[in-house]
Every structure is written in structure tokens, then in C-alpha cells.
Amino acid sequence: MSDTTTMSESVEMYLLKVAMLRQGTRPVPLSLLAQELEVSSVSANEMCHRLMDAGWLTYEPYKGVTLTTKGEGVAQRVLRCRRLWEVFLAEKLNITPDIAEEVSCRLEHVTPDDVVDRLAAFLGNPTHSPQNEPIPPGKSIAVVEEGQSLATLSTGATGRIRAITADTITRDFLRAQGMLPGAQVQVLAVAADHSLLLELAGKLLSLALSIAEQVQVTPLRHTA
What we know:
By secondary structure, the protein is of the alpha+beta class. The protein contains 9 helices and 9 strands. It has 2 domains: 1-138, Orthogonal Bundle (Arc Repressor Mutant, subunit A); 143-222, Ferrous iron transport protein A (FeoA) (SH3 type barrels, Roll). Helices cover 43% and strands 20% of the residues. The strands form 2 sheets. Strands 3, 4, 5, 6, 7, 8 and 9 form a 7-stranded antiparallel β-sheet that branches. A two-stranded antiparallel ribbon has the order 1-2. Strand 1 and strand 2 form a beta hairpin. Mean pLDDT is 85; it is low at 1-6 and 140-146.
């Protein structure tokens, strides 16, 4: 049984809203998330901490929340379901796009993954909703390897941080830069001394080889 059929609608909505509100790799402020979900800041804070403990989100004090790989998968599946239903309702039943979107927001929480796949095939695997929003593919990101040192990634490679094994001072420094479990990092360049120039949370960061070796990542690749 898939995650989308066993988790609560409220959890799905939190993860989906984070995915829809983010801009680049920057964390989504809790105040903005609470506003969009029409809940109090206290409620949003409590729920996000529960989701963080469950491994769906990461939280940076004074910055906001970011989806983990696990949370990203759920958010993209729900968003895919919503937008496929929008296409069906608008194109097959001639329902206006705004009403189709409203109805799809309810259908996204009760549609099993195998039905979503059949719906996509029936519609000819559309890539955009009636309002020209992109429809996530069935599998947008795939894990290449279980995990390895950040220092082993080549130029252009992307990974998702799994753990930091450095000492407390180094670990605190890295966390302050946004290097948290679940965050995505890309290697922009590798210098002659094997230090790495990285893009992380919308910022550039340079790490010596000895430090990069103490950061464990899951390499990612995009699939067609």
C-alpha cells in the first residue's frame, strides 16, 4: 500500500504546500505556510516538527522548512494526481479550469497510485494542466546509489545529504550553511587540491576535501 493511501490528508497538504510555495532551494517560511493553509503559526510549527521527526521535512530555525527525499516523493505524487484530474475534468467533462482545480484538490487525496497511472495513460500522459502548470512525471528522481561521500561526486553531480560525521564544531558550521539531512547539493567545480565548490540552498559554498569526506550523500539522477 502506498504512502498516499495511508497518510492523513493534512500531512499530504502540508507536504504539497511546501513543494508549491518554495522558490528554488530556499526554505519555505513557516509564517507563509501557515497563511496558505489557513492555520495558526503555532499549529503550523507543531505540525512541521512532527513531520520533521517522521522524516518528511527538515527545519532551519528562522528560515523555514524543506522537503526531504521522502517528503518530496509524496508531494510530487499528490501534485501529479491533482493536475491529471484537472486535465480529465476540463478536457473530458468540459468543466471550467477553476472548478476542475477545486474538485481535483479533493480527488488527489483518495486516488490510489495505480489509478493515477491509468488516468495518465488514458489522457495520453499530458505534461501540463489546463492552467499550464507542469504535471510531475511518475518518477522524476531516482536514487542511483545508497550513499557515499560528498567528496566522491564529480563536477555537475547532484546529491541529497544523508548525514554529517564531522566533529561538533564542523557539523554546526555546516548546518548553519544549510547542509542538513534532506537538503540537495550540487558540485559546481572540483579544484586541483580536490576542494569542492558547491551550490546549496541557493548559495555557493567551498569545502576542503577533508570536510567533504565527512558528509554522506545519496547521489541523484533525473530520469526521463
